[in-house]
Write a structure and sequence with these properties.
alpha/beta, Urease, subunit C, domain 1, TIM Barrel, 2 domains, 8-stranded parallel β-sheet, 7-stranded mixed β-sheet, 12 helices, 32% helix, binds zinc ion, Metallo-hydrolase_Enzymes
Length: 397
């Protein structure tokens, strides 16, 4: 058997312009030859390939693998009969109530997590980054339960697990459990609000970077700090990134405080974030906390999106569709042109789609998404349906 031939798919090769106005993209129709989970070659429809299994792509637009870059497998309430979020005065009260609530639920961890994964897979995502709570009260339990569920999804999704000290690295004395989690299969060091939660910027961030260096792991830290707390925190993160040589390995999730910087401060900080490969991940909040994501992109900072809370103890909302978040991003930041909407897809794929020969290249993993849309811009703006998703040559959706 000579692998698979996914026939009749379209790839965008450039922009079409009429009288100076970009009104659509140009596309080519190709077949994808898939062998051993990788792209062997893009074939012309007339090329012969005897013996390959034929799959009809029905003229779908081929876009890269969709990525969910910020979710919480362990916090899902999906499958739990409707229950609103409880009131909480602050984040500490919120996570204490959350822990008590989750521990008492009759629905199992596995079923709630599977409902979350299935919801997102149903929308075409095949790559997940999930934070998993690590603190002395829960120990390694949530991590182990998440790993057991992930074993059932082998071949259906890629994943990364972030050891996340939700209750405060210092506040909950989570350092030893964080070490264990990184020994036990978590591959990214998480963190949360070193100033407002841990009350000690230097020690909290210092320990976060110590863990990262010890385990040669990237960092993805939730920073909700605002104003001066954010200014201080970002400067410290920059300094530690440079001191540890951790360029291209540090992500800040949420980063609300970047909106509090004045234009001069932004002009100074954002290029430094870009130069040090510090990534920003946003859940595109609607409550006026959203950082200036387009200014960051324009300064060369990598920005990605995540659904984050989807019916959990933090939010009753969320449809689990990363394309809803991207659509919201485009609307908030008025990315309305054919080109802007096309480039926006990078926020959930990390792979530009416009390429004169087609973005999909030989030797790439055969992980991609088939969409019923004339162009990427239409997919993003109109939230056109995902028809199929493939992970390393196997159909998932
Ligand atoms: Zn989160």
């Amino acid at each position: 058997m000579l692998g698979k031939r996914l026939k009749n798919i379209r790839l965008e090769t450039g922009y079409h312009t009429t009288n100076g106005f970009t009104d659509r993209t140009e596309t080519i129709t190709r077949d994808v030859w898939i062998l051993a989970g990788k792209v062997q070659k893009l074939l012309d429809p007339a090329d012969s390939l005897p013996g390959a299994e034929i799959i009809d792509g029905q003229g779908a637009l081929l876009v890269p693998q969709l990525r969910e870059m910020h979710c919480h497998f362990d916090k899902s309430k999906l499958g739990v009969p409707w229950y609103p979020i409880e009131t909480a005065e602050n984040i500490t009260e919120r996570f204490n109530k959350e822990f008590a609530y989750l521990e008492k639920l009759p629905q199992s961890f596995a079923s709630r997590m599977k409902n979350l994964i299935d919801l997102e897979l149903g929308h075409g995502v095949t790559s997940f980054r999930s934070h998993i709570d690590i603190h002395p009260k829960v120990g390694q339990r949530y991590l182990e339960q998440a790993q057991a569920v992930l074993a059932d999804y082998q071949g259906k999704l890629d994943y990364e697990l972030v050891a996340f000290p939700q209750h405060g690295l210092l506040l909950s004395k989570a350092y030893a459990e964080m070490k264990k989690a990184l020994q036990n299969g978590a591959t990214i060091v998480g963190g949360v609000d070193p100033l407002s939660l841990d009350q000690d910027l230097d020690r909290s961030l210092g320990q976060t970077f110590d863990l990262a260096v010890e385990f040669d792991a990237p960092i993805d830290i939730h920073i909700h700090e605002r104003g001066d707390a954010a200014r201080e925190t970002f400067q410290k993160i920059l300094a530690l990134t440079q001191a540890a040589g951790w360029q291209n390995k540090v992500t800040v999730s949420h980063a609300y405080g970047l909106r509090d910087l004045d234009p001069g401060e932004r002009a100074e900080l954002f290029p430094q974030l870009a130069a040090n490969g510090i990534t920003i991940i946003s859940s595109v909040p609607l409550d006026f906390h959203i950082p200036p994501l387009m200014e960051l992109r324009d300064a060369g900072v990598n920005v990605f999106l995540g659904c984050d809370n989807i019916y959990d103890c933090w939010s009753p909302f969320g449809d689990g569709d990363i394309m809803t978040k991207l659509n919201r991003f485009a609307e908030i930041f008025q990315q309305t042109s054919q080109i802007d909407l096309t480039e926006a897809l990078d926020l959930v794929t990390d792979t530009p789609v416009i390429d004169p020969e087609g973005w999909l290249k030989p030797e790439m993993p055969a992980s991609f998404t088939l969409v019923d849309a004339s162009s990427t811009a239409e997919f993003v703006a109109r939230q056109k349906p995902v028809q199929a998703s493939y992970l390393r040559g196997q159909r998932v959706l």
